[in-house]
């Protein structure tokens, strides 16, 4: 564990920090790992793919032999579509647990593929809980699969996956987890969380660059999934079968991204794996949220649902506050923040993930304070009506 020796930030010629949930700020050594070309067919690259899969299976609970790791080209949504389209048979029915944009996107994905789907939509403030999932499954025997979002990145809410998984298991259904923005920083050991598959991508908590995602699926579920897929290129069974046979990706792999990801995995292990990474992100969140509250900002969510991944803040009520101007002022100070992605209230987001520590988060808060002063905003308190609505819905 050489966390003590880790320095933040890496020297990077003044590029801004990305306070966003991926792409995010990566280590200099991760970027440097891309300064070389690899032949996709070559034995060296095949060994890199194998190492990547082995390390991801280890992170998921040392499940080599029971589960398989299937990397898939594209952004995270491509990998979600690959997981769902491959593992949910055409005649099956899925229940999607939604509390934000990514849950709704999973439901849309199923609809586009022509799969039967029903949705529990909890809005923006609350997680789906085990009891209501159990009730929904009891009420509809046609449901075969449940799709859950681990950290719903649109609000930053951390959903209670263990109780959801238990409800799904106790009803004999199958669980697919979108752990895109959580895997690598929040424990997801599939030996303790019964599920058929999880999905994540290179550019979130492992801190690689964008270019591929990966499905970690039960081997028996993958074996049974032959021919399910609605798509040629997103067929996770076919990708897996080809990799087992040849050690290669079926179509052109993002070779540089894979090389960068292996370096990112090395840094992840050096930091103490999931526990070390998660602890740094939690500290980032705590320092940043306390500082922002000191300026009057308030979080969308109650403390108990705040993930260490990304935090949503209400837009302040002050008439001088305008998000585009705040964004530009923050950028001029070296910090790229993130617009909100909620349906009802005005909000913006600040990510806690990427190659940053609490010293950077203190600078973020100082930059927010200066930016408010430059805008002539002396108080960042949200509109009373927005807070009242949150309190009404979230209690
Ligand atoms: C990032 C993310 C995705 C994938 O988004 P892409 O933009 O396609 O990479 C899916 N689900 C969640 C929860 C995410 O955070």
From TrEMBL:
Cofactor(s) needed: pyridoxal 5'-phosphate
Q: What is its EC number?
A: 2.6.1.37
Does this entry carry the keyword Transferase? yes
Q: Where does substrate bind?
A: 349
Under catalytic activity, the entry for this protein gives: (2-aminoethyl)phosphonate + pyruvate = phosphonoacetaldehyde + L-alanine
Residue numbers of N6-(pyridoxal phosphate)lysine PTMs: 204
* Residue span, Aminotransferase class V domain: 130-298
Q: Which UniProt keywords apply?
A: Aminotransferase, Pyridoxal phosphate, Pyruvate, Transferase
What Pfam families does this protein map onto? Answer: Aminotran_5
Q: Which GO terms describe its molecular function?
A: 2-aminoethylphosphonate-pyruvate transaminase activity
In Gene Ontology terms, what is a biological process of this protein?
organic phosphonate catabolic process
- Known InterPro entries for this protein? Aminotrans_V_dom, NH2EtPonate_pyrv_transaminase, PyrdxlP-dep_Trfase, PyrdxlP-dep_Trfase_major, PyrdxlP-dep_Trfase_small, SP_NH2Trfase/AEP_transaminase
Entry-linked Gene3D superfamilies: Aspartate Aminotransferase, domain 1, Type I PLP-dependent aspartate aminotransferase-like (Major domain)
The entry describes its oligomerization and partners as:
Homodimer.
**Database matches in HAMAP family:** PhnW_aminotrans_5
- What task does this protein carry out? Involved in phosphonate degradation.
Q: Which family does it belong to?
A: Belongs to the class-V pyridoxal-phosphate-dependent aminotransferase family. PhnW subfamily.
Q: What is this protein called?
A: 2-aminoethylphosphonate--pyruvate transaminase
Q: What organism is the protein native to?
A: Neotabrizicola shimadae
What does UniProt list as this organism's lineage?
Bacteria, Pseudomonadati, Pseudomonadota, Alphaproteobacteria, Rhodobacterales
């Amino acid at each position: 564990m050489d966390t003590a020796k880790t320095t933040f930030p890496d020297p990077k010629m003044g590029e801004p920090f990305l306070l966003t949930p991926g792409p995010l700020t990566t280590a200099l050594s991760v970027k440097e790992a891309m300064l070389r070309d690899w032949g996709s067919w070559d034995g060296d690259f095949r060994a890199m793919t194998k190492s990547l899969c082995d390390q991801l299976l280890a992170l998921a609970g040392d499940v080599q032999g029971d589960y398989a790791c299937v990397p898939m080209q594209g952004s995270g949504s491509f990998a979600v579509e690959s997981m769902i389209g491959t593992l949910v048979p055409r005649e099956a029915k899925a229940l999607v647990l939604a509390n934000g944009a990514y849950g709704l996107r999973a439901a849309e994905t199923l609809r586009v593929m022509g799969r039967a789907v029903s949705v529990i939509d909890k809005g923006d403030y609350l997680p789906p809980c085990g009891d209501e999932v159990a009730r929904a499954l009891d009420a509809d025997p046609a449901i075969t699969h449940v799709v859950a979002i681990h950290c719903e990145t649109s609000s930053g809410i951390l959903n209670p996956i263990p109780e959801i998984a238990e409800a799904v298991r106790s009803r004999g259904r199958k669980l697919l987890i979108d752990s895109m923005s959580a895997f690598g920083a929040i424990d997801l050991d599939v030996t303790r969380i019964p599920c058929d598959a999880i999905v994540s991508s290179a550019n979130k908590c492992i801190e690689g660059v964008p270019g591929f995602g990966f499905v970690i699926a039960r081997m028996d579920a993958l074996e049974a999934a032959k021919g399910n897929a609605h798509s040629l290129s997103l067929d996770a069974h076919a990708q897996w079968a080809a990799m087992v046979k040849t050690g290669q990706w079926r179509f052109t792999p993002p070779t540089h991204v894979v090389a960068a990801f292996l370096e990112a995995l090395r840094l992840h292990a050096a930091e103490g794996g999931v526990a070390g990474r998660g602890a740094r992100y939690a500290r980032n969140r705590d320092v940043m949220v306390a500082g922002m509250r000191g300026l009057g900002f308030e979080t969308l969510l109650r403390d108990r649902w705040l993930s260490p991944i990304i935090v949503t803040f209400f837009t302040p009520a002050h008439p001088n506050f305008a998000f585009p101007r705040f964004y530009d002022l923050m950028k001029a100070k070296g910090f790229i923040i993130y617009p909100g992605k909620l349906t009802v209230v005005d909000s913006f987001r600040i990510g806690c993930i990427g190659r940053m520590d609490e010293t950077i988060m203190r600078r973020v808060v100082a930059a927010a304070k200066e930016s408010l002063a430059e805008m002539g905003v002396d108080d960042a308190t949200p509109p009373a009506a927005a807070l009242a609505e949150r309190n009404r819905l979230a209690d």
